[in-house]
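User: I'm putting together a small comparison set for a docking exercise, and I want a reference complex before I start. The sequence is below, and the ligand is pyridoxal-5'-phosphate. Could you produce the 3D structure with the ligand included, as structure tokens?
Assistant: Of course. I'll restate your input first, then give the structure tokens for the complex.
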Amino acid sequence: MAVMEAAVKLREQGIDVVDFGPGEPDLPTPENIKQAGIKAIQANFTKYTPIGGIKDLRKAIVEKHNRDFASRYDIAQCFANIGGKHAIFNIFSAIIDEGDDVIIPTPYWVSFGDIARYVGANVIFCNTKESEGFRLTADLLQKSLTPKTRLVVVNSPNNPSGAVLDDDEFVKITRLCKERDVLVLSDECYSHFLYDGRKPFSIASYQDLKSHIIIAGSLSKTYSMTGWRIGYVLGATDLIDAISKLQSHSTSNPVSIAQKAAIEALTGPQSSVGEMLEIYAKRRKFVLDRLRAIPGVKCAEPGGAFYAYPNISVAFGKSGIKNSLDFSAKLLDKAHVAVTPGEAFGTSDHVRMSYAASMEQLEKGLNRMAEFMAAL
Ligand code: PLP
């Protein structure tokens, strides 16, 4: 958000900024989904709804999840929220007590740490290895678990690294958590954006592990619906009941119009998802090739999502750059390219670059970045 603001300020001065900052699809919401929203307004579907969303929405969520992953949730185990972030906020609020340990693998999506701290958790960061593509393993997790650990956050595909856990390793991690009676929060926000032919996966397809799994989902990225604000929780009914109480006294229901649009997204044609994935796949290859061609820059292969997380530490010690914050500030100032510094995600040798931008913008931005680095 801060990067976006800085980029906007430069743009207001008439400067042509290439923006690799935003974590949202540049593609429009598919037409059928927009039309469902318009129809909802015209039909006066503009009033309060049940707190966790209308039954048809919750039915659409569980049936889609079941179709994709054989997860077998029922409606009572589903709750709709105002975006995936709200789902995660509610999950943490409902289950974390002051002083509980929460394990968050690094690099991590910014909000996990702050939400955990807000609800009084003691956050333990578990550093994944760049040499292993930033993938969490059961071995790494084992070293971080404590007797007070209540929750482990798993976000695969990952924001910011794009890392995708091996399915078997994900199962191993969850088995370990179950043995220790620790809950796994699986953030599936990017679950449908996987490359090289990999199929979407949900840990909730393992029925014997489900007692220890909470799913946070979102329609924001899959259907390019970031502004509509629809996310959901799938989990045990006591968790859903607790979230229901919390949400009834805070935000109430997700926007009625967005709920109708979400039903269309989940039950209507799914071709737009594949089309978006194809576009991202081309961009991903282009960005990776161009980044790796910059002398000294390394970039772990992002298996999913729409981010690259290159290691730019080759620039440290040059032109007063000490870390990725300095690097990002200088890159914006001198080359008018906005990236997000790795410090936001818990590492200081990297920057996050979103390739949810047009090819033309990507090419321009990478040319500028290569020139900037050559001139340091
Ligand atoms: N989880 C991750 C990993 C994300 O990157 C995001 C958004 O960037 C979200 C959850 C929340 O998305 P939203 O609140 O738009 O549904």
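Residues 23, 83-85, 109, 155, 159, 187, 189, 218, 220, 226, 231 surround pyridoxal-5'-phosphate (CB under 6 Å). The longest helix spans residues 271-292.
User: Thanks, that's exactly what I needed.
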